[in-house]
Structures are given as C-alpha cells and as structure tokens.
Amino acid sequence: MPSFAYQAPATLDALAGCLRGADAGTFLLGGGTDLIIRLRDRGITRGTLLDLTRVEGLDRVDVADDAITIGANVTYAQVADHPFLQDRLPCLAQMASQVGSAQIRNMARLPGNIANASPGGDAVPALIALDAVVLVLDGSGMTTVRRVDEVVTGIGRTTLRPGEAIIGVRIPRPGPHQRSAFGKIGMGARTRVVIANVSLTLVLEVDPAQGRIRDARVVLGSAAPVAFHARTAEALLEGRRPDPALAGDLAGTLRAEVKASIREIAIFQHKLNDIQGLALDLFAQLFPGAQ
Amino acid sequence: MLLQFTVNGKAREADIEPDARLIDVLRDHLDLTGTKEGCGEGECGACTVIMDGVAVNACLVPGMQARGREVLTVEGLERDGELDPLQKAFIREGAIQCGYCSPGMLMSSKALLMRNLHPSEAEIRLAIAGNLCRCTGYTKIVKAVQAVAQDGGVGRA
Description:
Number of domains of chain B: 2
Number of strands of chain A: 14
Strand content of chain A: 25-35%
Distance between the termini of chain B: 44 Å
Distance between the termini of chain A: 66 Å
CATH superfamily of the largest domain in chain A: CO dehydrogenase flavoprotein, C-terminal domain
Largest sheet of chain A: 5 strands, antiparallel
Oligomer: heterodimer
Strand order of the largest sheet of chain B: 2-1-5-3-4
CATH architecture of the largest domain in chain B: Roll
CATH architecture of the largest domain in chain A: 2-Layer Sandwich
Number of helices of chain B: 5
Helix content of chain A: 25-40%
CATH topology of the largest domain in chain B: Ubiquitin-like (UB roll)
Order of helices and strands of chain A: EHEHEEEHHHHHHEEHEEEEEEEHHH
Strand content of chain B: 5-15%
Low-confidence stretches of chain A: none
CATH topology of the largest domain in chain A: Enolase-like, domain 1
Shape of chain B: globular
CATH class of the largest domain in chain B: Alpha Beta
Number of strands of chain B: 5
Largest interface: A-B, 28 and 30 residues
C-alpha cells in the first residue's frame, strides 16, 4: 500500500541532510493549513513529508539593530501578538491578525504564504512593502538571501527549487519615523476569515520637521497575479503633506493602478471601489489628524 | 508510525499513517468522536480542538505534529462527570440547535477563556469567527460565552 515517509529534523544540519535527499515528491510541511488540503484534493498518497516544525531555533522573532528576523516556525498568531511588531511594524502585525481564523493563525506561518504564491496571500504584499528578504536553506547547508519578489513570480509559481526550504524572513529595522498599515477587503459574506479581494499595504516615512512624506512604499495585493508596488501612488505621496486632499488623490491614483492591472475583466470590477475605500481607511489610520 | 501524545490529560498512543490528520487519529484511532468533521478544509471550525493551549483545526493538523503535545477535545471538558461551565451555559442559553458545530464552538470559546477570563463581545466574536453555525445566528452562542465570562468561569448550576 502506498504511503508517505515522514521526516522531522530537529536541527538545521539535519534539515539540510533531508533537503539533500529531496525530490519532486518531497513536500515541505509547516503548519499544514495549505498542504494537507492540497494533498487530499489532488489524491496524493505517496511521497515524503518533510516536517519543518521541529527544527530548533526557528520559533523566534529576533530583533537586532539592523533587522528583524522571523523564524519559519513563528505562527501568524505570534506575529500578530508580538509587542515589537505591533509597535514598530504595525502593517505586519495587522496583516497577521487578519489571516484566516484563530485556528489557522495558530498553525500557519509566513513561509507557506511565500512558497504557495497565492495571489490572494496577505503576507507577500506586506513583506514586499517592508523590503523583506527570504532566508533559504539548501542541502549543502548554505543559507541564501533572496528578495520576496524574486521568489514569488506568478500564481503558484516561485523560484524555489526542490531541496530548498524557507527558514525565515528578514525585515530591515524600521526607522523611528516609519508608519505603516495593512488592510484588505475580502470575498464573500463574512467580514472575518476572508481571502483578500484586494489588499493594500502602506509603509511611509514622515519627516518630523517638515511634516512631509519623504519615502512611500505602496503595495497592492490580489490585484494581479503577484503583489506589486503601485509606483504612481508612491510618486504621488513623496514630498506631500498628509492632508485630506492627499487622501482623496491617493484613493483615485490607486483606483487607476488597479484598473490598469485588472483591465476590462468584468468579475474584477468591484476591486475598484474596494481599493478606494481601503486607501481612505488606511490613510485615516496613519494620519488621524489629517481628516 | 507511533504517535505518543497527551489527550484530555491522559498519555495516549496510536499507530498511524504519516499523512493521517489529527481528526482521523482522534476519531478513528482513539474513538473520540465528539470532534466533528465539517468542511475538511479549515473553513467551518467544526473540528476545532485545543493543542498546547491554542485552538486548531484538527482537519488540517497532521497527526504527527501532535507528537509530545497536549490535546484537549470536547470530551475533556467535563470534570468528574460534571459538565464544564461553558457547556452548561450553552445548554442554558439555548446555544445549541442541531449540535454539529457545538464541539468546535465550545473548544474555540474555551481556548479564548483560557487566556482571557473576561473577553468583550468583540473578542468573543473574533475567537469564533472561524466557526460556522447554520442554526443559531450566533447570538445565543455569544451570550453563553458572555455568561461564563461574567462569572469568571465558575458557572451557575
């Protein structure tokens, strides 16, 4: 009777050893919230389950002077509840708090969102906006560093090869004047536990002396096969003061970005109103005095 | 493969296939059929159990990931033949109709109360956002959890 082999390495060295033997039938297992469904949907009954969740040292958020490293076994619930992330990288904590249900957030982890490359994934756009890099371990025991947008290249497509595993993500430490926010509007009747119809991540640097935005990163999720920087919106924000007129301009600019991305596809037209509302919501959240 | 873990306070073991899910282990190997399978894809929450103190979907957890962990199922809520205050509140408030979602609702609510004795209504609704009920409209379920939250988990008789 066909069956799976199961490997649960306890160290990075042991994981590298398992990766050396990996082939097309090796499935990397994190929290399992995507993989278990996929194996059953596709009727896959043999192969190797390589369980990453027992690898020591990957369950921490390390806050260093230059960067924050989030290990592959840190769950969305832990990201959402982490005081430093809530305080200094609010878009990431907000994103994590809106992934799936409590049950999903208690098991699922950031690398799955990257490796599965779903266009509706919430982590990928937030990580792109934060200039995050992915730490990839291979069978030789080497860890390479790749940008998130180098890894995620299409719907369900990545540049990860068999024998490579994401062991964490690293985010440059935010400056003291960085503000950020994440929001999404979902599909279906539920207000929670939704897959994003469209998501927006804003990461802005505000000059405290002049009160002007001096660096803006604006990333749209679920508006194209891969999350992308809304360059016209970034150009709009840079150098501007956050006043109500700017909020309206941002909403209009993002609407145009989404419209160009979805073209005339009828079933996507509701994303246009959604992104305008999201833009106004997030702007109000970042600049409560500017309304 | 041999799975050894703790279920409802007791050391248990089962010989399972590597791709068996926690719900399969609980229901088919340990005869704990209180945990229900609804959608099988993490949408409905009927299979919710508590693992190491947090709510998880037993239909999405590989059984082997429970190795060495503590799992609490709806069968583990009663103490010495007496229902948990939460179970009593569900009955008293009429928070059960067909009952299929009830084990999951109870375990999501229990996980919430284990870390927050006095949750707000918003916190309760958030905690059960991953649990679908097609009968009650949720109001009575929220009321039942609130009733327990108000008397600190002691529960009225």
